[in-house]
Amino acid sequence: MLKTVKPKTARSKRILEKKQPQLVENPKTTLFLRGQNASQVVQLALADLNALKRPLSIRFTKKNDGIHPFEDPSSLEFFSEKNDAALLVFGYHSKKRPHCLTFIRCFSHKVLDMLELYIDPESFRTLNQFKNEKCAVGAKPLLSFSGTPFESPTTNAYSVAKSLFVDLFRGHDAPSIDIEGLQYMIHISAEEEVEGQPAPKIRMRVYKLVTKRSGEKTPLVELEEMGPRIDFHVGRHKQADESIMKEALKRPRALEARTKKNIETDIVGDKVGRIHVGKQDLTHLQTRKMKGLKRDRGESTVDATDLKERSASPPPKKSRAET
Amino acid sequence: MDTQSIPQTGDASKPTRSAAEMKELIYPNKPIPYTIDAGHLLLSDANPLPSLSPSSIEPTLQSAARDCAQSLIGHLLQNCPIVRDDTGVSLTLPTPQYQLPREKPIPKEKEKTKWEAFAERKGIQKRRKDERSKMVWDEVSHDWVKRYGFGGKAMREKQLQWVVEVDEKEERRKVAEEEAEKRKPRGSGPTRPGKAERSGQVFKRKNGKKG
User: What does the protein in this record do (chain B) (predicted)?
Assistant: First the structure.
């Protein structure tokens, strides 16, 4: 735990303010770390993932001893807080866990969920092994997940993997994207789960998109593998605590779009507004003024019997008018 | 790990496709339709992958990925409003549907100070500082000048007035005052000696009316 410091200068105050919880959050920073023992494969994989993640990433290349994410995540939490990084990728290698990458996601600098994936060294290919043009730095990738394991209704390693990979690669939450920016796709797939056989591998492929005119409205899309190519064996995973996950998934109410009352769009597409006015008071309605309708000064009410009597004698109003 | 580089297969060798094949390529048809979240540019394909033999892994994955990419691009171009401007063509993306956890909790609303609570109750609105600052821009001198005070904008404007309308009320008052002054009997009030007298340049009458 870092001790809380009171900012002394305006600059440090601004920096600390940026680290505070925000209503609209900045894109998550990813921190790439390596352990005391990290094989060549792990190091290359970390470098390549970092290359895909730039500029929303920090990569540390020094050895970090004694980090065991599943046993004691405190040092990872420290790194997360110190670097304001919500996602961490920790790579190490041991006999028990060969070529291991641990994907860690934090919520307010505490570990939310974790997934351990072991790289298959046989099929691993780096970014540079593919001799072709790479995508621009910081481009937002298309993401696709193929295979039934990712669609499981209960939380398992694959659904955690999907959530983590989407979080890792989505980049900026852009309200609009330039068509030129759709440059590459990360395709993650897993085969069917079969009883009695080891859990299916998660295969990550990165392709560059090549669009061609097709004669139709949509262009023909072709793919060219760009690298890295990584096959993962699934290792341990830690699911998020339900109550913390609920807290983390909350949407701020301030950002919710208010429903506009009484404004509708009809079938033609015209915007129609409805206005409510109070009930009109008709008792004081001014109608056409006529002499005959004027009320008498003396009497407040006139009924039928009065009228009969009046017909005998001339009405008092008229006589007043004559005088 | 194989450290050899992988050559790219050129597209030139590909045979030309018939119209039906082309249609199939552009609009891939799957038993389980894709679910697309355009906000994240995310596509989920729930169709099981065909079984992969070591030699067929890459082509199978690539064709599955191509169908995904094709559908996603097609979906984006059809369903997202396209905006054309000087910088290029851009797609307006909807808000993402696939929920991801936040990085930090929602910020707590700051507790209102006593004054803020009072001001809200009374409907007092805070004036921004720049709304009415001490300095204002002067178009004539192209400089920031004080709003009021010596050399201020108000003073400058007063000086710039080359014709001033007569204030009738004020004029009448002045005339009336003068007349009242004239009507006053001489020496009724305490009189001050004139400037010349004070300086002693004028000789006083030696024998006045007294004598």
Answer: Involved in ribosomal large subunit assembly.
